[in-house]
Amino acid sequence: MAALAFLGAAAISPTGLVQIVFVSVGLTLVMAFVWVLACVRLAGEDAAQTANILPQIIGDDTAPSLVTGADGAVMYLNKAAREQLGASDAKTLAGALRTTLANPGAILFRLESRAAAQGSACEDVVTREGHVMISVHRAGPERFLWRVEKSADRPQREDAALPLPIFTLGRNDAVLFMNTAARDLIGERVRTLDRICVSLPLKPGQMNKIFTKNGPVSCFAIELEGTAGRREIFLMPSNAEPAASAPDDAAMLDDLPVPLLKLGRDGAILLSNRMARDLLGVESCEGKSFGDLTEGLGRSISDWLEDAAAGRGTIQSETLRVKRDDSEVFVQVMLNRMQDHGEVVLIAVLSDATKLKSLEEQFVQSQKMQAIGQLAGGVAHDFNNLLTAITGHCDLLLLRHDQGDADYADLMQINQNANRAAALVGQLLAYSRKQTLRPEVIDMRDTLSDLAHLLNRLVGEKVTLSLSHDPTLSATRADKRQLEQVIMNLVVNARDAMKRGGEIRIVTENLILQDPLERDRAVVAPGRYVSIKVIDEGAGIPADKLQKVFEPFFTTKRVGEGTGLGLSTAYGIVKQTGGFIFVDSILGKGACFQVLLPAHHVMAEPVVPKPDIETTTLPQANGIVLLVEDEAPVRAFASRALQLRGFTVLEAESAEDALDLLSDGELKVDVFVTDVVMPGIDGPSWVQQALKKRPEVSVVFMSGYAEETFGDTQAKIPNSVFLPKPFSLTELTEIVQRQMS
User: Fold this and answer.
1) What pLDDT is attached to residue 369?
2) Which of 331, 352, 373 is the last residue in one of the domains?
3) Residues with Cβ < 8 Å from 119, sequence gap 6 or more?
4) CATH number for the domain including 143?
5) Helix (H), strand (E) at residue 600
6) CA–CA distance from 141 to each of 69, 145, 187, 269, 700 (Å)?
7) DSSP designation for 282
8) What is the 8-class DSSP label of residue 228?
9) Backbone angles phi, psi at 273, to 5 degrees
10) DSSP H/E element including 63
């Protein structure tokens, strides 16, 4: 009508701007009317179409189903929704679910938001009448299809029909689910755990008192971790007397998802479930006792079970080894007493402890190796002090005896055997990784070529030695002398394994690892490596001894044929270099030792040979030396050796005595010669104090330990050098004289 009025006014208005305005407004109102009319007609057709289609799709669904708009208004609800929800007159979804959910607003908003973003959503909701699954699907623009599925209509859980009482617990011990056996035991559907437990919290793996329709009953409880933070509780009632309704024990145990055994107090296996039999590696436990299948307790298995059945002592879990031939398996066993028809029986809960035991063995092995390493370092220190005194005084005697003297040969024997003892101590230090390495960039092809002549002499006539090199072999960075020792030790072991002769092959090649390599409890990081293999055709190493070959003093040779330090020395050198060493062997077919060293991309620079301090002749020295050594024999030898060279020697048996001497400002000292490890103040500490007032004095550190034990401290002390024990007379005097210059 308004549009007609404006058009009529335009007809009678004078031509001009006013007439144009009236015509424009009138036409706009006409177009708006036509648009609204079209929308209403389309909406009516859409609603009619919806009303015709939805009954065909969800009208006969046994679960309540509803279609709503984005505002929650109900557009359609099926027969099940009207009858089961009592929602015939409901205008909104919240109103339709008011009898099902106490506070439906938050849940429905959350579900609708997720459906709008993802297309669908569902949620399991605990209501007064049990579980309800509410699902929603986006059914077009601004339209959602809802379905309310009660627990009675949902497919039954797999454990609902099990004869064992089962509870699903949520937060605050809310009971989310009870199977048929649980409802039969308790006599009703409960909401929280405190309604059925005499005392809380529930104790998994132990007996608990449970309220049932027949009064309190002792039940053995087993707890498993469920999904979404839920817990699954299995109850095994202890039946004092036979009951017609009691579930079959065998069926109960076999359906449990944990390995369980029912034992008599004498250890006889009365019942077992499938998971326990799989873990023990047997098809049937009938006629067997627990002691027949396990070992490693340290005492009789039957005595342990009898104590548990009688309630003597505290019942703790024990880790036992399963007697299986196919693999090594360990089980952790928790025993619990319960009454079964008036008799005491034991429920053994088993868990696979093989990985845990393996980790424990690795830790114990690591601790043992560390302890032996510390012992080796300590023994080496003491031996080096003794050997320094022996070799030093032997050198003093040799100065007074020439080759024509009758005692000369005896003195040389003492000297040579002392040097052999020093080499043995060096092997101990190599194993404990406390030796001082002098790394340099080396080419393994050149190193092995230089070593080939010596190796051929070592292997003898019956054994053939062959070398095979990768032509593009990368360089590596290591102590050349120590690496040669590793190769020699491996070749000697290979030779000893081939009593009848054969071939030893040394193969070098580049190895590039794209992924971490895990083997023998070690992880080799990705990267480029130089691989050195020593392969023999000997008797091989038994599988049970492969993991022990690198342990110190372990040997497969007969008594008197080896010290057991060769491979442990090689292991220590390789690990200290930053590499890895592995062994593969087949009994009767030989062994292959593989050394992996990190590749170095820069070739070695030309090395300027150092002068040999044994042969270099220096003039008679003079100067004042402060000698600090707590071992009297070592101090006596060092003092005499330096005095023979021409030095004036001031002696001190401790760092405190040395500092007292230096308190005299008039005293002039040119060189400090000091032990590193001493009672009280150690060598580097007193030297640092002394250098504050005497910064021009040079220092010589002596030690039976490796240089690396104090290398960082020494690096901070200017004009200092290191002299490892044992040292000869010439080595001591020459290094002191060089510090004077």
Assistant:
1) 61
2) 352
3) 137, 138
4) 3.30.450.20
5) strand 590-600
6) 9, 12, 49, 65, 89
7) -
8) G
9) -100, 175
10) none
Please determine, for residue 732, whether its predicted confidence score (pLDDT) is greater than 70: yes
* Secondary structure (DSSP) of 627-655: EE-S-HHHHHHHHHHHHHHT-EEEEESSH
Tokens for 143, please give them.
């339209």
Residues 263 and 336 in one domain: yes
φ/ψ bin of 233: left (φ > 0), alpha (ψ from -120 to 50), beta (otherwise):
beta
pLDDT for the residue numbered 213: 81
Q: Are strands 698-703 and 720-724 parallel, antiparallel or unpaired?
A: parallel
**Tens of pLDDT, residues 290-311:** 988 998 877 788 888 888 888 7
Domain hosting residue 12, numbered range: 2-53
Question: Which two tokens mark 656?
Answer: 């405190």
Residue 153 — very low, low, confident or very high, per pLDDT cuts 50/70/90? very low
The answer to whether residues 469 and 585 belong to one domain is yes
**Could you give the CA distance from residue 182 to residue 117 in angstroms, rounded to a whole number?**
40
Is pTM beyond 0.85 here?
no
Structure tokens at 317: 């879990």
What tokens were used for 429?
A: 């230090």
Number of Cβ within a 10 Å radius of residue 47: 12
The pLDDT, as a whole number, for residue 316 is 65
Q: Are 297 and 308 in contact (CB under 8 A)?
A: no
The last residue of one of the domains, among 195, 220, 250, is 250
Distance separating alpha carbons of residues 131 and 175, to the nearest angstrom: 11
**Beta pairing, strands 671-675 & 624-628:** parallel
Residue scoring higher pLDDT (654 or 566) = 654
Tell which wins on pLDDT, 481 or 151: 481
Q: For 257-298, how does the pLDDT look when each residue is reduced to its tens digit (9 = 90+)?
A: 778 888 888 889 988 888 888 889 888 888 888 988 998 877
Give the neighbor-by-neighbor strand order of the sheet with 624-628: 648-652, 624-628, 671-675, 698-703, 720-724
